[in-house]
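A favour, since you know our structure tokens better than I do. What I am after is a single protein written out in full by you. Could you add the entry underneath, on a fresh line?


***
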Amino acid sequence: MQAATTKLIHEIRRLSLPLRSPDDLSPLVEAAGEAKYVLLGEASHGTSEFYTVRAELTKRLILEHGCRFIAVEGDWPACFSVNRYVKSLPGAAADAKTALQAFDRWPVWMWANHEILELIEWLKAHNDALPAAERVGFYGMDVYSLWESMEEIIQYLERIGSKHVEDAREAFACFEPFHREGQNYGVSAALYGEGCTDEVVALLTKLRTDRGRVEDPQEAALDAEINGLVTLHAEQYYRAMITADAESWNIRDRHMVEALQRIAAFYGPGAKAVVWEHNTHIGDARSTDMLEDGMVNVGQLLREQSDPGEVFAIGFGTHRGTVMAASRWGVTPEVMQVPAGIRDSWEDLLHESLNGADHILLFAGRDAPALMDTVIGHRAIGVVYHPRRERGNYVPTVLPQRYDAFVHMDATTAVKPLAGIPVMV
């Protein structure tokens, strides 16, 4: 073993805390508890332990540190169905499973799973014991729900008898020829100049209002506002994804930050949030090769726009196990084998350093040596995954700069979809 690797393993051991039970999360909860935004990552969208540990952290941040809402890497309309349920808002589903059926667009397993079901049921019971104004919300920050969000805006305008209903119908009619396919719209807008930007901007200029919890206790106006934001940014996203991968990524992450900040403003000064997203979104992009590619992300943008101590990012990773993912976009997911971390990756080093046990690495407030500021590969698994092409799944990363803490789960298992567990391949 090389001397540098031996020293790095020694420092990993020095900075690590054992994770044998939920009680061992206490140092992490205390370290993150004063932050305005606690960002909880994941190395995949299909690993059960990432969901369950994040759920335990979330519960404690709500109970012990007063976090007011959860924001996730999910579509606003589907997540707002869950929000209605946990807060008993008008139109709420009868039970948690029914609320989660709103996640009906691929990748369904990402949020419609048993791990999230347990958290949602806990949150509903927690909220039922609180006054309406103190209940904890659940929201989506993503940008994909272009058509669903347009439909929600029209329904909202109809309910309130707005004079802008016909304006909305006329503006959204521009999208009708594309049959709810974002890629079709993107090709037309980017390559042929047949986009709907002007119509959307003109409509949203008419609709935007400023309000808070007192003025909008049923959250109908907040719902319409964020759906409007999604419509604007989704149009930009689908246009950019045809010609500029980095720019489409940046539009998406900037949208998520703006949505998060608008939700926080709705809750008022001092409101704290727990954010659930992939590591590639919550870990600072400046500590990866994303910087060279001109890409930004939620973790970077929030750090840049916030005061010191207001953002606390926790990454998650695994050495080996199984994961729920798909071989290509849109197909039935599978339980796939996650091979052992490649040699000299962060996953491999953590496995070796910690003797195959689960641990927490806490960087914030501690003296992480310069040796830890080494660029090393760090695994990222998407909803589409090819274990046989494993080396391409690693992101060059300076771990202590990318995160304030890191949770290493040595052996993990696939998430359990509500629709049932496919056969392992």
Notes: The longest helix spans residues 220-243.
